What does this fold into?
Amino acid sequence: MTARVWRVCAAFASRGLLLLALLLAFVLPAAADVAVPELTGRVVDQTGTLSSGDIAALTQRLRDFETRKGSQVVVLIVPTTQPETIEQFSIRVAEAWKIGRKKIDDGAILVVAKNDRHVRIEVGYGLEGALTDVTSRRIIDEIITPKFRTGDFAGGISDGVERMLRVIDGEPLPVPTPTVNFGNLDDLGPLLPVMLFGSLIVGGFMRALLGRLLGSFATGGLIGVLAWLVLGSLGVAAVAGIISVVLAFIADLFPTSTGSSRGGSWSSGSSSGGWSSGSSSSDSGGFSGGGGSFGGGGASGSW
It folds into this structure.
């Protein structure tokens, strides 16, 4: 009788273990990997560690470097990468963002997992000869983490990025080709009065001199050049020029006797705020990676 009871208990125990295993199989996947953040700019801070001024200054430095050198360098700060290691998470980010130029692979990502107290420099294939594993580790150990230990995250990131840029600057890379960036169209806001004035006043003179079609295009060209000189963006300048061409051409369709009412009509249009998005992002123009590839080069550290 005792043996029979023992066998029944053993059978229930084995079934219980099987049931527990099945439950764990469903529960454990709930601890999913951290999602790769959206690439909203050259600096993505999901922890609120950096101030808006820090982000703006760092973004401008990285933008200027990319314009001059061609390489893309970005910063990502997340609370944690758990349950993955920072190496696993960083390569997923690199594969998703594709920082660096396609087939040149000159991208680098500085990843900080603040709560985990881990940091990593992920290096694209094209920079592995300059930003080597040893060099990356020295930047982390000698520049970044000492400041992190004192709570100076902004200083550690800024100095670390500066050192990364200096190292990359010494690598012979293809000269960046001019690109048309239709990025920050919010910059058109301050130019709207100039565009309206140029299209109506200067446009009237140019149309009288060259005819409606040529005069309108000449007006758009002048406004476009002015926008390029002021903003330094070919994309924004092209948009400003096209809008000015259309405004100059349409303005010529109205009779001269309605000039005052025409001016009022266009003025109301300028205050509609069509180009204003209210975005406070330093890269509020759709920054994206250039198609670069990564193979796991770089280094990690902790503080």
Notes: The beta strands are 43-45, 72-78, 107-113, 118-124, 294-302.
